[in-house]
Amino acid sequence: MRTLTYFVATSLDGFIADPKGGYGDFLFEGDHLTAQVEEYPDTLPAQAREAMGIDAPNQHFDTVLMGRATYQVPDGLPSPYPHLRQYVASTRLNTTPDDVEVVADPLAKVRELKAEPGDSGIWLCGGGRLAAALLPEIDELMLKIHPIVLGKGIPLFAGEFPTARFAKASTRIFDSGVVFASYAKADVG
């Protein structure tokens, strides 16, 4: 069964980017990055994969969904993840100049993608408002918690959303201070 995983870096105080959408304060060196490269090569943008000489097959995901601001990050690539099917959720964009498909109703799109055959995952890579809108469909949270406090910025989940409960699946602490914390959607009964 296909699942939706919110795999994202966050600060200790729950921000995925600074107020302007930048992420320069996050750690880009260290043993946590080595683990991400080895275990989640599919989550690296094309530019990083090329610079690092990574030609590894996708291990977890065949599809990525991102918010408009994540897709249009300053100095970003027009097609950041060409090794995945790419979707950008936006009501402002109509088209993109590349192979990224624009979707106006991300909740319906995720439900359609989850209904497809196979077991490759769907990666929600960013957008606090998008994450809040998709919270009912998020099956797993994979948080890369960086040892920084931003104080303000784009929150992990932004806007109004229903309470959701998750159960701890795993935790890994790296020498860099980054923690990978994984949570699975909890059965509410």
Automatic annotation (TrEMBL):
The lineage of its organism: Bacteria, Bacillati, Actinomycetota, Actinomycetes, Pseudonocardiales. GO terms for molecular function: 5-amino-6-(5-phosphoribosylamino)uracil reductase activity. InterPro entries: DHFR-like_dom_sf, RibDG_C, Riboflavin_Biosynth_HTPR. It comes from the Bacteria. One of its GO terms (biological process) is riboflavin biosynthetic process. Gene3D superfamilies: Dihydrofolate Reductase, subunit A (3.40.430.10). Residues 3-180 form the Bacterial bifunctional deaminase-reductase C-terminal domain. PANTHER family: 2,5-DIAMINO-6-RIBOSYLAMINO-4(3H)-PYRIMIDINONE 5'-PHOSPHATE REDUCTASE, DIHYDROFOLATE REDUCTASE FAMILY PROTEIN (AFU_ORTHOLOGUE AFUA_8G06820). This is Dihydrofolate reductase. Pfam families: RibD_C.
